[in-house]
Design a protein that fits this description.
532 residues; alpha/beta; eight-stranded mixed β-sheet; 19 strands; 34% helix
């Protein structure tokens, strides 16, 4: 009787909650791939069509496909994936077209609805990328939609309180369905060896994407390394060696060429396993540099400037959602973990000896460890309480902004750096900056303000792996949600879509290389590069 009375009292509350929910549903089954009109040469960036036009011709320069998953991580309809794969294959059939495939996973408070702001923003981004590629390469976007928006906007307080529910959903969705779909997208892209597959995740979409690809990417890299080394050990030109190298190439083709997390809302504990894998195996990534030796054999020393990221985790210093809200949101779960003894610490107890392995191929002794607070080490709970790019101990690079004729300011710390040669800033020239031993990897100017920015290797960094992490200036990304801007796209294009020499991104050598110790005759060791 009491149960029935309680149920009767709860019924109005349940009905009220049900009314404020955004329905669990797909939005794109009728039009799983649509055309995006190219930007006008001298007009506005966006020219929206009144109705979605299906993308069916290989000659269409910009297509947008959709791939939707439910709250349990299952695809709503495999037909959406089949359509996306067919769009990529059609673009690859043009012998003169080297398509760029951009996969975007949205975050909290978004979905794949036609009126969603992230859908509109992604269309603008595709147009901008196409224009910046001089309209010479087809651009295909794949928008991965999930119910990031649980509560209607008319219930703003309840919408904020959906944080834990949507974080749990973004953690649950990554599964064999989504991981295999991403693998198929990469493999279909790389049927053209010059095509590029770039995956991007924002906010909880960064958490979702990282969980979906980390394990499989680590496995693909490890398998390619093993096959390459075994192939190199077999007689050159033998069928067995050729088969091993074919398998290594297939494993490499099954992953993205670049993964970008922007304002990721996952704990640094999500990123650290992949970082540890890359660091402990001494991996470098030099996709623009032709490999002159047989796979698995040592190449001559390669220039440090050729090192590029496989993963990039970026966060704005103006992103209060990840700088403040994530630590607040993780406070209660962290307390539960501590009470259960789930975190390791820096002490000498049974759960102690927790440290951070460091790797920087640009220094004489590339491997070391941070073991104590004095070294700069932090406990495991600190990684859970913060996002990776906000943690200075994990940052591989810093962004510098010109604030005068001879001064640059570090975005993450506010520190000011004096530049002796004012022409370095006036020309925004990487080589002139590096004449002052600044280890700048790239520079860019904002088109609207002409402000000069530089990306510098973080001094005394622990992370010199292909997993780049940095905080970026709010002039580039002002807050958590404002990401589909020309400023941010320009930064991404100039920093990650171009070679250090300013040429367009090319998939010349997609395999990672390993920096391994080589024992010499007098018992010392020096590094040598071994191909993935």
């Amino acid at each position: 009787m009491r149960f029935a009375a309680r149920l009767l009292l709860l019924t109005p509350v349940l009905l009220l909650l049900q009314g404020c929910h955004v329905p669990l549903q797909p939005y794109r089954l009728q039009h799983p791939a649509i055309e995006v009109p190219p930007p006008a040469l001298n007009g506005p960036a966006v020219t929206e069509a009144r109705t979605d036009k299906d993308c069916v011709a290989a000659s269409v320069p910009i297509c947008l496909a959709f791939l939707e998953v439910d709250d349990m991580g299952e695809l709503w309809n495999k037909g959406e994936l089949d359509t996306a794969l067919s769009v990529i294959r059609r673009a690859n059939t043009d012998a003169h077209a080297d398509p760029v495939i951009l996969v975007f996973v949205h975050g909290w408070k978004n979905n794949a609805a036609p009126d969603n702001g992230n859908v509109a923003g992604f269309k603008v981004a595709l147009q901008d990328v196409y224009a910046r590629l001089q309209r010479t390469r087809p651009v295909i976007g794949i928008y991965i939609g999930w119910r990031g928006n649980l509560i209607r906007q008319s219930w703003p307080v309840a919408q904020q309180l959906s944080y834990y529910n949507r974080e749990a959903t973004a953690t649950r969705i990554p599964s064999a369905s989504l991981s295999s779909a991403l693998t198929q997208i990469a493999m279909r892209t790389h049927e053209n060896p010059r095509a590029l597959a770039i995956f991007i995740g924002h906010s909880f979409g960064g958490l979702l994407l990282e969980r979906a690809i980390s394990e499989m990417t680590a496995s693909q890299i490890a398998q390619a390394t093993i096959d390459s080394q075994e192939g190199a050990a077999l007689p050159a030109g033998s069928p067995e060696a050729a088969e091993k190298l074919r398998l290594a190439a297939a494993a490499t083709d099954a992953r993205a060429d670049l993964v970008i997390f922007i304002n990721p809302a996952g704990a640094a504990t999500e990123a650290k396993p992949m970082l540890d894998f890359l660091v402990n195996n001494s991996y470098r990534y030099q996709p623009f540099l032709a490999q002159t030796s047989a796979a698995g054999a040592a190449d001559p020393p390669t220039p440090n400037a050729a090192d590029r990221p496989l993963f990039v985790s970026l966060t704005s210093t103006g992103d209060l959602a990840t700088k403040v809200a994530v630590p607040i949101g993780h406070a209660l779960p962290s307390l539960r973990f501590k009470m259960a003894g789930s975190f390791r610490d820096l002490g000498s107890g049974p759960n102690g000896h927790y440290g951070l392995s460091c790797f920087d191929p640009h220094v004489p002794h590339p491997h070391w460890e941070l073991k104590t607070k004095e070294d700069g080490a932090v406990s495991q709970s600190s990684f859970y309480m913060n996002t990776a790019p906000h943690m200075q101990v994990l940052q591989s690079h810093v962004m510098l902004k010109a604030i005068g004729a001879t001064q640059m300011r570090v975005a993450s710390t506010g520190e000011k750096i004096t530049i002796r040669n004012p022409q370095a800033i006036a020309q925004c020239n990487r080589d002139l900056f590096n004449e002052e031993h600044l280890n700048v990897v790239s520079t860019f100017r904002l088109a609207d303000t002409q402000a000069c920015f530089a990306i510098q290797e973080r001094p005394n960094r622990c992370n010199g792996s292909p997993y780049w992490m940095m905080e970026i200036d709010p002039d580039v990304v002002p807050d958590h949600s404002t990401i589909f801007t020309q400023r941010f796209i320009q930064f991404l294009m100039d920093t990650f879509f171009m070679t250090p020499q300013g040429g367009p991104m090319q998939r010349v050598a997609p395999r990672l290389i390993q920096l391994l110790p080589r024992n010499d005759a007098v018992g010392g060791a020096e590094p040598t590069d071994v191909r993935e």
